[in-house]
């Protein structure tokens, strides 16, 4: 193994954006993934991570030849060595979207073998790229101070200055006495109310093991995903959100789209692409509180049927309350991979909005075996999204439409939607 480059300062000419918030450079035969730079720039960068092999990671700490699209960083805490929140804080919104478009298109070609140029679109309510976020979850450090994780680190930045959410969201949060190791969920809901909820620390033993025997980072991840006690500090802990004329009341720690314009926009696209006729059947998988189920129910009418599957029992309960006037919607509290085989009616349309890791082969195979004519697949990670698209192509589906939205301005994250149709 060659000598580590950790801490080494390199002069680099930056190339294309890469998936994950980096720009790609090369030095002495190795790939360097550089944060805080822009394509075409010449920078001085310090290597922050080197595990050997063909690549390492670095931060651009001095801009030698800057891009004309570089702006003064909008986020004061996300620069080199700082929080991992805003990868693209130093780029104009136009260039941020161009970089994301290039990444989505590249992932589709490289992973799914789909040659398609995708332009990332702005969502309503984006404005100047700040204040678009409606909810944020903060970590709490060993001294009880809330903040954001540093990039690829368990360290926490406690200066609550990230501009993704309105600054008023943090009122009285710093002064509160929080439990070390816990989390703080903040929500600015659709009717102007603020909710702040403390989430207890995950239960990991003093030896670092969970009850299943996991230890270390694996134990912490497993414990973090397990149910934890919650305490409402500000507000009711039951945000109210709206899409069109419909209203949902849900748990503050439950899932809702972070960007204030996302839920409405995605519902409109899904309703259009689903193409449901009166009396037809749809599945809504990973359905949350049933936002897309409501859109599908409207298209299929009272003689149609929508089967929704969501693993969170709280989300299913909240969804049933919000959709009580839609008897054609049937919400199932179960894991998608287990529930598909038990759903009573074969669908004409399937909508999937899986977690960041994607649906995966088992779910895609089960959906394809159900024989739906149309599939609408949603993904918030271009890599797993492209992988799932490739799996559909293996099962006799073709890509008819792809759209992508800048649902996370100032960051490298992007939301992608694809319409797939059966037959070649």
Question: Percent helix among the residues?
Answer: 10-25%
Structural class: alpha/beta
Largest sheet: 8 strands, mixed
End-to-end distance: 48 Å
CATH-level-4 superfamily name of the largest domain: Vaccinia Virus protein VP39
Question: What is the number of domains?
Answer: 3
What is the tally of beta strands?
A: 22
Rough outline: globular
CATH architecture of the largest domain: 3-Layer(aba) Sandwich
N-to-C SSE string, H for helix and E for strand: EEEEEEHEEEEEEHEEEHEHEHEHEHEHEE
Q: Let me know the average pLDDT.
A: 94
Poorly predicted spans: none
Rg? 22 Å
The neighbouring-strand order within the major sheet is 7-21-22-20-19-16-17-18
**Within the CATH hierarchy, at the fold level, what is the topology of the largest domain?**
Rossmann fold
Count of DSSP H/I helices: 8
Tell me what portion of residues adopts beta-strand conformation.
25-35%
CATH class of the largest domain: Alpha Beta
Oligomer: single chain
Please provide a written account of the structure:
The chain is α/β, with parallel strands linked by helices and about 425 residues long. The chain has three domains: about 10-70, OB fold (Dihydrolipoamide Acetyltransferase, E2P) (Beta Barrel), CATH 2.40.50; about 110-125 and about 260-420, Rossmann fold, CATH 3.40.50.150; about 135-190 and about 195-235, no CATH class. The protein has helices at about 95-110, 215-225, 260-275, 290-300, 315-320, 335-340, 360-370, 380-395, and strands spanning about 10-15, 15-20, 20-25, 30-35, 40-50, 55-65, 120, 135-140, 145-150, 155, 185-190, 195-200, 230-235, 240-245, 245-250, 280-285, 305-310, 330-335, 350, 375-380, 395-405, 415-420. The chain has an eight-stranded mixed β-sheet with strand order 7-21-22-20-19-16-17-18, sandwiched between helices. The protein has a six-stranded mixed β-sheet with strand order 1-5-6-4-3-2. It has a six-stranded antiparallel β-sheet with strand order 10-9-8-11-12-13, with no helix packed on it. About 45% of the residues are buried. The model has no long low-confidence stretch (mean pLDDT about 95).
């Amino acid at each position: 193994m060659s000598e580590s480059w950790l801490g080494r300062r390199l002069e680099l000419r930056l190339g294309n954006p890469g998936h994950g918030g980096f720009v790609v450079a090369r030095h002495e035969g190795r790939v360097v993934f550089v944060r805080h730079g822009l394509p075409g720039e010449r920078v001085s960068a310090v290597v922050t991570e080197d595990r050997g092999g063909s690549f390492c990671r670095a931060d651009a700490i001095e801009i030698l030849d800057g891009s004309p699209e570089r702006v003064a960083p909008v986020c004061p805490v996300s620069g080199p060595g700082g929080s991992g929140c805003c990868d693209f804080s130093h780029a104009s919104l136009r260039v941020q979207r161009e970089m994301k478009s290039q990444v989505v298109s590249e992932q589709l070609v490289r992973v799914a073998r789909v040659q398609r140029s995708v332009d990332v679109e702005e969502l309503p309510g984006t404005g100047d790229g700040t204040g678009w976020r409606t909810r944020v979850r903060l970590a709490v450090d060993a001294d009880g101070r809330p903040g954001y994780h540093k990039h690829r680190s368990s360290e926490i930045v406690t200066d609550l200055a990230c501009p993704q959410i309105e600054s008023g969201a943090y009122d009285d949060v710093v002064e509160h006495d929080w439990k070390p190791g816990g989390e703080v969920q903040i929500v600015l809901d659709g009717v102007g109310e603020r909710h702040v909820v403390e989430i207890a620390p995950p239960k990991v033993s003093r030896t670092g093991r969970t009850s299943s025997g996991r230890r270390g980072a694996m134990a912490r991840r497993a414990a973090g995903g397990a149910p934890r006690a919650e305490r409402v500090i500000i507000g009711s802990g039951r945000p109210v959100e709206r899409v069109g004329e419909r209203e949902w009341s849900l748990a503050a720690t439950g899932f809702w789209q972070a960007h204030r314009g996302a839920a409405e926009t995605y519902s409109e696209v899904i309703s259009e692409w689903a193409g449901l006729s009166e009396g037809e059947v749809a599945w809504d998988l990973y359905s949350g509180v049933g936002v897309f189920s409501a859109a599908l129910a409207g298209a299929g009418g009272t003689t149609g049927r929508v089967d929704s599957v969501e693993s969170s029992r709280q989300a299913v309960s909240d969804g049933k309350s919000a959709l009580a006037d839609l008897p054609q919607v049937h919400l199932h509290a179960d894991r998608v991979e287990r529930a598909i085989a038990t759903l009573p009616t074969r669908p004409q349309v399937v909508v999937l909005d899986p977690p960041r890791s994607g649906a995966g082969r088992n779910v895609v195979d089960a959906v394809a075996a159900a024989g739906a004519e149309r599939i609408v697949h949603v993904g918030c990670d271009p890599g797993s999204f492209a992988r799932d698209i490739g799996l559909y192509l293996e099962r006799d589906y073709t890509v008819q439409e792809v759209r992508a939205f800048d649902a996370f301005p100032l960051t490298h994250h992007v939301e992608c939607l694809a319409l797939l149709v059966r037959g070649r």
